[in-house]
Amino acid sequence: xxxxxxxxxxxxxxxxxxxxxxVVFTGRKLADQLGSGLTVLVIGSHLDAxxxxxxxxxxxxxxxxxxxxxxxxxxxxxxxxxxxxVGENKLDIFLxxxxxxxxxxxxxxxxxxxxxxLVDVTEIKxxxxxxxxxxxxxxxxxxxxxxxxxxxxxxxxxGRAFEKPVPDAGRTxxxxxxxTVMAEDEIKLKVTGYQAAEGGVSLTDASVxxxxxxxxxxxSAEPPAEITDESEKEIWKAQQGxxxxxxxxxxxxxxxxxxxxxxxxxxxxxxxxxxQTGKVVSPDLYIACGISGAIQHLxxxxxxxxxxxxxxxxxxxxxxxxxxxxxxxxxxxxxPLTAAMKERLEK
Length: 347
Description:
alpha/beta; Rossmann fold; 8 helices; elongated
């Protein structure tokens, strides 16, 4: 009997995103509830190591669409490969990580498979083979229960919202290689190169995030004499706060985040933005420094397990959502906090 639950592994350069293993592990549990096996689909190039890892994380069967033309992610051939892999299989549930690529390929596959997709889900309930997906709406103020009345039911899972798996090196499974669907000359989009982002821990994978907002500016600091433009002076002053934020994040092996206000003001690049128009994160610890707590920012980090707020304004909305709050100047709080963490962690 064909497996009724499938999971998709999002990878880049043959390295799986951590959220993919949460998806595989969640698929394993759903398959057990349905008395089914679990099929994992991986698309890309040089995937043998990923196939082995997928089995260790819970797959009974791994389908590989492994071709040099798929080394770089392009939505059209990936969606076509996915639809081709599903073919005539009568599966009930297909899980994806809510990553940029995972969400895009799930949406395109839903069109090819004539079904719907439930996105950014934080909890799943089963009624027979029917999925009830729970997801945040209205910037996280409410939780909505949604269902898909067609099959397969495509669901994207929010990273770090589900149980983190532990691989079992003793598991066994089957690996089947499938042919690619689109030839290279049929693919209109070409990848000509990459520009590497700043180093550091990925926001979506980080268990600890230290974020800064507009309140990071140190108005008492004096910019270097060569900086004469007033707007550049403001950016320089704020960047001094992000130096402290980066120091703390580094000690905690965490990532650096930012509010939209900080990004729009030019304090840090967009890659660090957390919120409704940035990354949605669910770390174990989120430290918000100089962030007021606008609803758009809360939408991106409200599901953090522990929120710590540092702000000079005791009326800042962020304090309503923080488990721990410190009213004060981050320039006086972060240096001793970083020093204490270094000592505690023996770094």
